Amino acid sequence: MTELVAPDTERYAAWAACRREFGGLEELHGDGHWFLPEPLQRDLERDTFDALLALLRRYRRDSADGLIPTDFLWIVDGEELLGFIRISHRLEGRLLESGHIGYSIRPSRRREGHASRALALALAHARGLGIERALVVCQDGNIASERTILANGGSYEAARDGNKRFWFELD
Predict the structure, then answer these.
(1) Widest pairwise Cα distance in the chain
(2) Span 99-126, mean pLDDT?
């Protein structure tokens, strides 16, 4: 059963296997790797993993230094890590283009309904955060993601800079 869980140091091997399967970072959304220095974004060593988890915990809370609170969760099925999902608590800056929610499912587990279930869980999470209207964006031409968004009730707004924008009314 698809669930969202907080990143956990005990799942290092599952994280490394999942990240390995993605290969490049181009299609990897929601895992937070971009917070690491460029050379470490592809690194799968344990110390890099531990540093990433520390950064992700840091983003979960409001702070005086202007960080936008963001929940980074892992999409799991039992012990298997299926992918990653990001839920930003508000939109400002670059998030006005990338949306409240971003997610990725590992290639070998796509087309099994996990993205749709994970997005539904993320929307419920966003509602619990008090978000009344959530933006989810996918690349133009990403038919699978567009179908996932529409199946969860997203309302198409427009295409902008190669991305399609969809809104969810959560109130």
Answers:
(1) 42
(2) 96
φ, ψ for residue 130, nearest 5 deg: 90, 10
Nearest 5°: the CA angle 15, 18, 22 is 135
Query: Which domains are seen in the chain, by residue range?
Result: 2-169 (3.40.630.30)
pTM (2 decimals)?
0.92
Q: What is the mean pLDDT of residues 115-119?
A: 97
Q: By percentage, how much of the chain surpasses pLDDT 90?
A: 73
Tokens of 122: 């993320």
